[in-house]
Amino acid sequence: MSGLISVDEALALLAKNALSLQAETVALDNALGTRLAAPVMARVSRPPASVSAMDGYAVRLADVRTVGARLRVTGDAPAGRPFKGAVGKGEAVRIFTGSVIPDGADHVVIQEDADRDNDALVCRDAYSSTEHVRKTGIDFAEGDELLAEGEFVTAAALSVAAAGNHGKLDIYRRPRVGILANGDELRAPGSALAPGQIVNSNPAGLGALIRQWGGEPVDLGVAQDTLMAIRERIDAASDIDIFLPIGGASVGDHDLMRPAFAGAGFTPVFEKIAVKPGKPTWFSTRDGQRVVGLPGNPASAFVCAHLFLKPLLTGAGQHALIKARTVSPLPAPGRRETYLRATVQVSPDGMLQVKAAPNQDSSLIRPFLLSNALIRRPAEASSVAAGELVDILPIGPLVPGLV
Ligand SMILES: Nc1nc2c(c(=O)[nH]1)N[C@H]1C(S)=C(S)[C@@H](COP(=O)(O)OP(=O)(O)OC[C@H]3O[C@@H](n4cnc5c(N)ncnc54)[C@H](O)[C@@H]3O)O[C@H]1N2
Ligand code: MOO
Fold first, then answer.
1. I want to staple 45 with a disulfide (CB 3.0 to 4.6 A). Which of 71, 137, 183, 279 is the partner?
2. Could you tell me what this protein does (predicted)?
3. Residues ≥6 apart with Cβ < 8 Å to 311
4. How many angstroms separate the alpha carbon of residue 365 from the centre of ligand 2?
């Protein structure tokens, strides 16, 4: 298949060609940023029994409906050692935050609201309904599905799984993403540069994004501008799940990535996208392996990694867009769906406002530093005036200090 397709069509084709990875069992410590291969069911209820929310005394509500109620303290229920007996009429048991509420009790009087004299307790307040008791299973009940198959494992998901009494998780193994730069002019960061040479800067940032999205970046180095040099790198990397060739994607005499992968048996799924930046982004498959070909221009590579590589790694479908007010007017985008690097902030009146970087040239790297969102302008849309709402795709946290 060839020709220009829309962003939505590209996303649908990526979803249709989702990775199929083996499942493995790992300790919780190693599961962050992976995807679950099986649902996580609660092995316990949380809390496992009704517990006290405060330090004080477990009593029967019926005994403390009037001010000055006098009770007899019959024992202690420290957290982890439930009281063996029951709380009878006119009785109280010393209790602590997290302790199991003893049988018979249905209310906790906090210690600040009662006077203790040896085994006597006098309440300074009257109560009409149960207070400070956390009922069994209010967080979740044994057998509940806590996390679904395919879910991305976040910090919160790890705590939930641990609380559900799981020390290990069944996850899909992290996809290995082989970053293959291409260009006779490219040299490693920190090299002495001859005239015409430039730094191979794209893999550093892309590798970090891949890690953030649950993949394992693999540096396949820089292939020189010959079909044979590229092919050698492809053939030497048989354990790669997603090849990420950078550059050599366009129509120039030295743009050899597509033919090199085609020669290695990869079948094109799409060859370019009506998107700006990043029109030459392409996608091919060979059995279980995928190729997401990114343009070499740094902005194109970075933006298209967010748009097309992230969904393949995280399993997310459509992009989740939100609205923000643009602080500057935006021109009509033309025939390609356009993504502008931008800074989203919270304005003094508490609304999201977004500022497009003034220069959107696809060769620029520095604007990444301030970009925590991409403004999406649909193909053929009209220009917008300052103050109008536009769609944004968040790609980073809100800029600190502006909330
Ligand atoms: N006649 C046409 N020319 C171009 C078209 C077109 O449709 N017709 N498309 C343009 C668009 S859009 C883009 S985007 C670029 C894509 O070019 P390539 O993917 O082939 O990338 P290269 O030519 O290899 O490099 C472009 C640019 O990026 C620099 N680069 C490459 N790799 C890296 C790297 N790893 N780290 C940092 N910088 C890198 C490279 O030096 C070039 O300056 O094509 C347009 N041309
Ligand atoms: O659309 Mo190309 O990605 O930079 O200019």
1. 137
2. Catalyzes the insertion of molybdate into adenylated molybdopterin with the concomitant release of AMP.
3. 11, 14, 15, 317, 319
4. 13
Tokens at 201, concatenated? 């800067």
| CATH fourth-level superfamily of 7-21+173-314 | MoaB/Mog-like domain (3.40.980.10)
Distance 283 CA to ligand 2 centre (A): 16
247 lines ligand 1 (CB under 6 A): yes
Cite the DSSP H helix spans in 148-293: 155-163, 202-212, 227-235, 257-263
pLDDT per residue as tens, the chain (403 positions): 458 999 999 999 999 999 999 999 999 999 999 999 999 999 999 999 999 999 999 999 999 999 999 999 999 999 889 999 999 999 999 999 999 999 999 999 999 999 999 999 999 999 999 999 999 999 999 999 999 999 999 999 999 999 999 999 999 999 999 999 998 899 999 999 999 999 999 999 999 999 999 999 999 999 998 999 999 999 999 899 999 999 887 776 767 999 999 999 999 999 999 999 999 999 999 999 999 999 999 999 999 999 999 999 988 878 999 999 999 999 999 999 999 999 999 988 889 999 999 999 999 999 988 899 999 999 999 999 999 999 999 999 886 544 3
Backbone angles phi, psi at 137, to 5 degrees: 75, 15
Domain range annotation of the chain: 7-21+173-314, 24-46+144-172, 51-134, 322-400
Residue in 261, 273, 297, 338 to alter for ligand 1 test, most ligand atoms within 8 A of Cβ: 297
Backbone φ and ψ for 114, nearest 5 degrees, come out as -145, 150
**Assembly ipTM:** 0.96
- Partnered with residue 91 across adjacent β-strands are 72
Q: Whole-model pTM?
A: 0.87
| Contact between residue 282 and residue 242 where contact means Cβ atoms under 8 Å apart | no
CATH class of 322-400: mainly beta
